[in-house]
Fold each of these.
Amino acid sequence: QGRNVVSASPYRWWLALVAVVHSTFTGDPAGVSVERAALFADPLLHIMLVIGTAFYVARRFGLLASALTSLSLAMLFPFAGTFMPGQPRNDVLAAVLAVWSLLPLLTIGSDGLGKDQLNRSYLIGGVIGGFALWLEPRGMVPIPAGVAVAGLAVTFLTRKDTTADDNV
């Protein structure tokens, strides 16, 4: 009969992909590959997050920002502790998606980006954020709420005063 599953599927798909790749390269049976996937999936996801984010940040903001971001992602506790081997959980993939949903918002002040390019990166960030909400709704709700509050604050703080008399 099995048991009820109350979590979304993408993280299980990630574990299955790692297990299939392991089985393909080692020839181990499926059960052994799934056990190994549970050990390697989260650290592999963490390595991919650090490297992918480093390249993105280096391209958009420079090498110093990339180095600081990489160090932060690799060493800041408790974020880095989320990617422990042998403890597969949905919130690991949701944490990766949360980081990548916020990165496009940081390109607001970037030089050399056209409006279409910015809109496309915001759309991609929103879609990634939607997947993060799908995976871990309780933990990810504060992120779009914080983005909305920050957007309202920026709008309020940067608006121009239109009530001043220019004829005086």
Amino acid sequence: GAADSKTGILSVWIRLDGGDASILRIIGASATLGGGATTKWRSSRLNANKFIVTGDNAAGSTILEIISTTSYTAAATWLHLLASWDLASAAAHMYVNDSSDLAGGSTLTNDSLDYTTADWGVGANPDGTSKMNGCLAELYFAPGQYVDLSVEGNRRKFISSTGKPVHL
């Protein structure tokens, strides 16, 4: 049922146990089975310790890139990363622990993201590189869907007003 689309939602609880100043992959998609150098879609904690969501079109051009303003390093606390995008209307949102954390200069090109790639990995790239040094929980990834996260009621579908997980 996978289909290329201009929209998507990502919600995940993350505990960073180490790996500061290195890339920690939350989700990665590769154009070839078993991984490979061509990643088409990725959500990560960058070596600059910021969260990023990046996606390419079928031609391999980056058409989605949203990044957090704040740096996040290893700690014994859980973080909630919530993002949504609609490239047709140049809309993107990123929230960490229910606070808006979207840096300026996002790439939001009106084109379809290549969600029909050959291989996907959770907690690492499909080839096992860029492994997550920490824990992931309550992962929700919905390509082809969009919700305006600037509306507080929409965020409550993913995180409670007290900052706790909710039943999806």
